[in-house]
Amino acid sequence: MQMTKAQVLAWLKALAAEYKARKEYLTELDAAIGDADHGINMDRGFGKVLEKLPAMEAKDVGAILKDTGMTLLSSVGGASGPLYGTFFMKAGMALAGKEELDEAAVKTLLETGVEGIVSRGRPVLEDKTMYDVWKPAVDAYNSAVDGGAQLDAALDAAVAAAEKGVEATIPLQARKGRASYLGERSIGHKDPGAASSHMMLVALRQSLGG
Ligand code: ADP
Ligand code: MG
């Protein structure tokens, strides 16, 4: 099974719409344990990506993802700009020249992107960050593909794991980012970056259709 370039472009468009619609929700999550800008950051970043999409459309998937990362890096302040920017830049560089993505290529996208997040933020599991969504999602995706699953089923598995991951951030005490300044007061709140990462995976699955 393949994810076409048109579906990758549809994913980025859907993310711009989703972060616009969820701007207040993400900002409320960040108001509880951060500085109330996560929704604003995601909306601004993917709004810029949406503006640049027409100029990207003729490029290959790798170049589109790389441009997306550079756009996020240059337009989003805060922790999430460099983290998501690096995710898309690294994934795009690893997929240079691709016009569509099969199971192995989406594995590369997810793994390389998450390596980018790790290299930037040095998160470990249970730090209460977006990594608590990405790590189980990538593991679930990989074990599904290793077991012979097609792209749609493997992404279903990733989304299910991401869903659990985002809920599991609630009881954790933050050890990275602004939320860590709150110490024990960060307990009992969902991590905003984990929530936006879950949305990213849901939109990826939906852009594939079926
Ligand atoms: P800022 O914290 O600078 O205001 P945002 O509010 O846009 O930036 O993003 C906050 C999110 O970034 C957090 O909810 C968390 O998921 C993520 N985050 C922060 N620091 C790190 C880190 N070191 N590693 C991974 N993710 C991080
Ligand atoms: Mg913030």
Name every ligand kind in the structure.
Answer: adenosine-5'-diphosphate, magnesium ion
Radius of gyration: 16 Å
Number of DSSP-assigned strands: 2
CATH class: Mainly Alpha
Q: Mean pLDDT, as a whole number? A: 98
Low-confidence stretches are none
The total tally of domains equals: 1
Helix and strand sequence:
EHHHHHEHHHH
Shape: globular
User: Strand-residue fraction?
Assistant: under 5%
Widest sheet: strand ordering: 1-2
CATH architecture: Alpha Horseshoe
Q: Outline the biggest β-sheet.
A: 2 strands, antiparallel
- Helix count equals 9
Structural class: mainly alpha
CATH topology: Serine Threonine Protein Phosphatase 5, Tetratricopeptide repeat
The percent range for helix content is over 70%
| The CATH superfamily title | DhaL domain
- CA-CA gap between termini: 12 Å
What's a quick, concise take on this entry?
This protein is mostly helical and 210 residues long. It has a single domain (3-208), classed as DhaL domain (Serine Threonine Protein Phosphatase 5, Tetratricopeptide repeat, Alpha Horseshoe), CATH 1.25.40.340.
